[in-house]
């Protein structure tokens, strides 16, 4: 009985975080008067692209490891992917708190591709958050049936978000003002 109460409380925290994090990010992105944190923040988009690349690799490695039944190693790799996701979020907020958004300068069909990639990336990043939090929680607590069920949604979405984040960065990087 106590275990179910703990699960309910943890899932409630996950639900709250799944709402609060996107709202806080949206509010911070909407701030017109940017905070001067220094020029070092201009390197954060590149760092986040590197983090997204590493995350995508870790996600694929995690899938390979679990298919090989290497559970302990899978757990370490996925914890690392989750940690990189946390770093990404912090660096993303710091960048947008201190720098204006960069407009995409491409024209023609590439512009449509960029915005399709960006919009689906943003939508999926919002949708995936509660699934990733649940997958991580269930995995840590060896709630294997729930973990496997939620990862069927979390894994492809998280991988998509990681890859499209890198694509968005590569496409917009020529337009950053340094």
Mind explaining what this structure looks like?
- The structure is a single chain.
- This protein is an all-alpha fold and 178 residues long.
- The protein has a single domain, classed as Four Helix Bundle (Hemerythrin (Met), subunit A) (Up-down Bundle).
- α1 runs antiparallel to α4, α2 runs antiparallel to α3 and α3 crosses α4.
- It contains five helices and no strands.
Helix count from the secondary structure assignment: 5
Strand content: under 5%
The CATH fourth-level homologous superfamily: Cytochrome c oxidase, subunit III, four-helix bundle
Which structural class do the helices and strands define?
mainly alpha
Please identify the top-level CATH class: Mainly Alpha
- One letter per element, helices H and strands E, the order comes to HHHHH
Short description:
This protein has 178 residues and is mostly helical. The protein contains 5 helices and no strands.
Topology, pairings included?
Elements: H1 2-29, H2 44-67, H3 71-98, H4 109-140, H5 144-172
Helix pairs in contact: 1-4, 2-3, 2-5, 3-4, 4-5
């Amino acid at each position: 009985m106590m275990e179910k109460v703990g699960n309910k409380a943890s899932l409630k925290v996950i639900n709250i975080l799944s709402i609060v994090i996107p709202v806080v990010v949206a509010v911070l992105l909407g701030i017109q008067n940017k905070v001067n944190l220094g020029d070092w923040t201009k390197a954060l988009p590149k760092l986040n692209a590197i983090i997204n690349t590493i995350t995508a690799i870790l996600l694929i490695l995690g899938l390979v490891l679990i298919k090989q039944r290497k559970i302990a190693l899978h757990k370490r790799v996925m914890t690392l992917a989750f940690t990189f996701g946390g770093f990404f979020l912090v660096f993303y907020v710091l960048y947008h708190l201190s720098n204006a958004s960069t407009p995409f300068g491409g024209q023609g069909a590439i512009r449509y591709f960029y915005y399709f990639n960006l919009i689906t990336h943003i939508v999926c990043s919002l949708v995936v958050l509660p699934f990733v939090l649940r997958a991580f929680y269930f995995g840590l607590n060896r709630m294997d049936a729930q973990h496997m069920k939620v990862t069927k949604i979390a894994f492809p979405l998280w991988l998509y978000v990681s890859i499209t984040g890198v694509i968005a960065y590569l496409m917009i990087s020529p337009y950053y003002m340094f």
